Amino acid sequence: MFNNSHELIGPRSKGENAQAETLSAAAEIFKALGDVTRLRILDVLERREMKVQEIAAALGMTQSAISHQLGTLRTLRIVKARREGRSTFYSIDDGHVKQLFDLCVEHVAHG
């Protein structure tokens, strides 16, 4: 019998490895979007770019909690930051993220 699963399917090609890495990165994004606070942040950022203080006030949360969540979202390129003087403004990173968010909300509302 086979001693490991690689013997069952054979070695991965470079393309398969790249696809596996892409799917792993996609899974990380879905994990991040599995948090209701992060989704609430995206909901308010969908309307306009905002500073941490504005997001915190809109969600009734502390600036520290919002900053922590924004750090995760920035790492995954779900949101981006823009500096203007001493202020930092956050917005949804690009149209792909907005589309993913909108489709998910639409899917739930449709059900």
Main β-sheet, spatial strand arrangement? 1-2
CATH topology of the domain at 36-110: Arc Repressor Mutant, subunit A
Q: Class of the domain at 36-110, according to the CATH hierarchy?
A: Mainly Alpha
Overall SS class: mainly alpha
Distance between the termini: 46 Å
Largest sheet: 2 strands, antiparallel
Number of strands: 2
**In CATH terms, what is the architecture of the domain at 36-110?**
Orthogonal Bundle
What are the segments in which pLDDT stays under 50 over at least 5 consecutive residues? 1-7
pLDDT averaged residue by residue:
90
Explained architecture:
- The chain is mainly alpha-helical and 111 residues long.
- It has a domain of 75 residues: Orthogonal Bundle (Arc Repressor Mutant, subunit A), CATH 1.10.10.
- Helices cover 64% and strands 11% of the residues.
- It has a two-stranded antiparallel sheet.
- Strand 1 and strand 2 form a beta hairpin.
- The N terminus is likely disordered.
- Keywords: DNA-binding, Transcription, Transcription regulation.
- GO terms for molecular function: DNA binding; DNA-binding transcription factor activity.
- It holds the Pfam family HTH_5.
- This is Transcription regulator (ArsR family).
